[in-house]
Write a structure and sequence with these properties.
Elements lengths: L4 H7 L4 H13 L2 E7 L4 E5 L2 E5 L5 H11 L8 H5 L2 E3 L5 E11 L2 E14 L12 H4 E2 L2 E2 L2 E5 L5 H14 L11 E5 L7 E2 L2 E2 L7 E5 L3 H11 L4 E4 L5 H12 L3 E7 L4 H5 L4 H5 L5 E6 L6 E7 L4 E3 L3
Parallel strand pairs: 9-15, 9-16, 10-13, 10-14, 14-15
Antiparallel strand pairs: 1-2, 1-6, 2-3, 4-5, 5-6, 7-8, 11-12, 16-17, 17-18
């Protein structure tokens, strides 16, 4: 067995001692998160669950990691740090915590960084193939929402849906569509210096690190999308922007945290989308049979479950 290229990029940001401790685990496990804190054991999360490495990172270990993550230029990543994370080549997202410096009621930067959370970006090409026939039919794309608890693969699913719609699927008679992804947290396209590290298809534009409301409006005005994709809607502003997109003739595909389709109906903020029958499909995910398990596909207008086969 060997470490994959993307995993080599992750191993390279650790101090040598920590890197050597983790290398064997990358060979044996599908690691998706590593949490490192000064003075605390290292936590590793994989498909096997949580495990603890009894090495206690020092202040120098964290300092070394931050230098490597920022290519020895924290100033160049000032805006990213202000938002609490840095996305490195390969689309891996490094969350940081420490002392927040406030200015005019907003976070100006984070100093005295005491912990880092490495979320490893993994594409699963083809994970949405099973549901594509329920959300695209001939020339029509159904307005779709993915409902999923945390860490059950909703962003991975969303990413692959974008790729499939953008490229088209000849076997289903689906022609490629122009897509704009509003990537508020750099998680869908996993952009590095504005360039998506994930495969979102040949007809996809990405507005990286952009607030959803502003991004949706910008996309409609300037990028002529046929489909708009964004992650984790939930505010009144998000809903208003999605309503505007729909009224402009653009289809929408998005996600929310939840466990069942009932969670969608319980939240008042989604009333306009539901009462006006804008949302047409709901895909419910879980981790029952592994991350990304497709529990149900619902037709929201008809109110029925759609059989998966």
């Amino acid at each position: 067995m060997r470490i994959l290229k993307g995993e080599e990029e992750i191993i390279g940001i650790f101090p040598l001692t920590i890197g050597n401790l983790l290398k064997d685990r990358f060979l044996r496990e599908q690691i998706y998160e590593v949490r490192i804190k000064i003075g605390k054991p290292i936590l590793v999360y994989s498909k096997h669950g949580e495990s603890i490495i009894n090495y206690i990172p020092t202040k120098e270990d964290i300092k070394s990691m931050i230098q490597k993550i920022s290519n020895y230029s924290l100033y160049a990543y000032e805006e990213d740090i202000r938002q609490g994370f840095i996305t490195i080549k390969g689309g891996h997202r490094i969350g940081i915590a420490g002392e927040c410096v406030m200015e005019k009621g907003e976070v100006k930067t984070i100093r005295n960084i005491s912990s880092v959370n490495i979320r490893i970006c993994r594409e699963i090409i083809g994970c949405s193939d099973k549901v594509m026939k329920y959300i695209v039919s001939g020339s029509r794309v159904y307005n779709t929402i993915i409902i999923s608890p945390p860490k059950c693969g909703k962003t991975t699913m969303l990413r692959d849906i974008a790729r499939n719609i953008s490229n088209g699927i000849s076997s289903l008679g689906i022609n490629g569509r122009k897509i704009v992804v509003i990537d508020e947290r750099s998680e869908i396209g996993a952009c590095h210096f504005g360039i998506p590290q994930s495969d979102l298809g040949i007809r996809t534009d990405v507005l990286d690190n952009c607030l959803k409301r502003e991004g949706l409006i910008m996309a409609i005005r300037s990028l002529s999308p046929e489909v708009l994709i964004c992650d984790e809607i939930g505010t009144k502003g998000d809903i208003e922007a999605l309503m505007m997109a729909f009224n402009s003739g653009v289809n929408i595909i998005t996600t929310i945290h939840g466990f069942t389709v009932e969670d969608l109906y319980k939240r008042k903020v989604f009333c306009d989308l539901l009462d006006n029958e804008i949302l047409e499909r709901a895909i419910v995910l879980s981790n029952k049979n592994g991350v990304g398990t497709i529990e149900n596909v619902h037709s929201l207008k008809g109110g029925e479950n759609m059989c998966l086969n």
